[in-house]
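CORE FACILITY INTAKE
Project code: CF-77B
Contact: R.S. (postdoc)
Sample description: multi-component assembly, two entities in total
Requested service: structural model of the whole complex
Turnaround: standard
Below are the sequence entries exactly as provided by the requester. Do not edit them.
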Amino acid sequence: MTPDFLRAVLDTLIPGEAAPAEAGLPPLPSGSAVIVDHASYAVQHADVLHAIATQAGGERAFAEAAEAARTSVLRSIEARQPEPFRALLTVLLQDYYETPAVLAAMGWRADPPQPRGHELSPAETTPLAAPARAN
Amino acid sequence: LFQHARTAAAVAGKLVPCVNPAMHIEEDLVDVVVVGAGMGGASFCWRLSERAPKLRIVCLERGGWVDPAVMPAQRRDWQSANLHDWATSPNLRLKAFQQSLSADYPIDDSGSAFKPLMWNGVGGSTINWAAHFPRLHPSDFRTRTLDGVGEDWPFDYFELEPYYDANDAIIGVSGLAGDPAYPPKPARAMPPLPLGRLGKTAARGFDALGWHWWPVDAAINSIARDGRAACNNCGPCLIGCTTRAKVSVDVTHWPCAVAAGVELRTRSVVQHIEIQAGRATAVIYRDGEGREHRQRAACIVVAANGIGTARLLLASGLESPALGRNLMYHPAAYARGMFREELDGPAGPVGCAIYSHQFYETDERRGFKRGVHLQVTRENNLLQQALRLDPPWGREAHQLLRQEFRHSIAILVMAEDLPEPRNRVTLTDRTEADGLPGVTVSYSLSDHGRKSLDFGLNRAEEVLRAAGAYRVVRVPLAPLTGWHLLGTARMGRDAATSVTDRRGRCHAVPNLIVADGSLFPTAGAVNPGSTIGALAMKIADDLARDMA
């Protein structure tokens, strides 16, 4: 499979953001900007990737198609092969959302939850409001 | 003569301690063998070892201890661990082809609306539970009498209450006394967990509607206690707790039980229980090296959860028409509200903020009996949230995730699951890798369950909007919520409709005892951990009296 085709699949599934969507945060990067090692998923998910290429009329045709056309192809494959498509998507989203740049773009830190833990908002330190009574 | 007397007594239901340490007749003959080291088995062993310290008690656990150092909350791939070796479903863990620390067996859940979740090891599912620790209500013990549905328990709330209190004491509960939804409870050992922006925002919604809410009782340290740290709000309780701020019974009960003399044998997979002439005589188990052992005992106690217990008892040929039937999970659904303001994101114990029992008791005007539990939960990690979006890919997915992440509150609607014989655990005709028959769970959501969930979702949406949500998304059924495995060896008076008596003793084999959630005749609409622990302790006291 060609790198252009794999990048096109990635960037249709995970297009990223062109501009910051939230004040003070960078835009989400595209899938291909984050996931550079295509080899493993190209092998592991070869069948569904071939199906995508075939549906589009070839790898090059898919890579050169407009985003709307690529999206339409992927929707079609998702409907016909839901489990293989979901497996591919899961692997890609997993790699994507564990990337520090993506976590930062979503306003979350890259460090794992431990050992630092998190501070909850100072609002918690105010006295509890009197809870209402059950009927 | 001694052996004959023991057998006769056991058949009559009066058990006699078999081992006098001063006069061992056979080294492998013990008083009590317990199968399973989760909440039921741990509570039972700890209590029995306190009440009857001379008894020789052996617990056989199919899995091992979990070292907190290997839990994924300290790894960069902690989010995806949830999909693989630390998935909540044993089937997903097995499918991941990774060496899980949980000693799992496959469960055919293709015919079940909810997927069973569990952990198989020392601590059982308390290793990866959310540690929300409510009690049943008094009415939950009398649903047949009060509402004409389900079954009454063979005892009431107040008979179990001292055991709830005793279990709370060893667990260490964070919470706030005075909840008007319950009879008075003793002061909680620790203050409630922080509510955070999320909890306070949700509370605002309940207050606006004049509905009950209360900080949850949580089996999580809100302050340092008993040599364990205070929770540092790291978030993902379901992948284990590296700081041990969250209770799991490998940390609380087992050290006490082992110090009291209970022998815990890990990596010991019980294959079957020998039953002869109405008496359980021994368990056959396989150790970590695959060697088989025969462990004789005067009394055998099974606490392997509502699926594992039924599987083992069925595989052992226990005859009871109710065995494996009446599986209850608690039907569950979610409503998720999106807020303009920033909330806490996936920080804080995921299942523990506040809850409401405004609609817990029966109100005939709703069109169904019994009620629902509304539980305000915290956000999941980013990856989990991204994976369950609709659609989960493309530009729209980014927009949806932006709206949701750090800006949402989910309210879990948990409904009372009425016992129905068609919902059941059965064996398959294949033998699994662990040497036991395969197991299938069949469960369909009843009309009662659907009505309850729909009612609860309506109320959840109301409260989210009252709290300020500008958009609410409903998840009408949440399949991966099958934590509560209940009812498959239920207690009762009639051997035709129940498996055990009020003391957990099997009607057909009185020295074969059940001590876990399988015993529940009805399930209420709250998390069962607290009740499983209390019930197992009560059964231990009953047995201690019998063996005195």
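Facility notes:
- The CA atoms of residues 33 and 44 of chain A lie 21 Å apart.
- Helices of chain A lie at 3-13, 31-34, 39-44, 46-56, 59-64, 67-80, 82-97, 100-105.
Invoice: internal transfer
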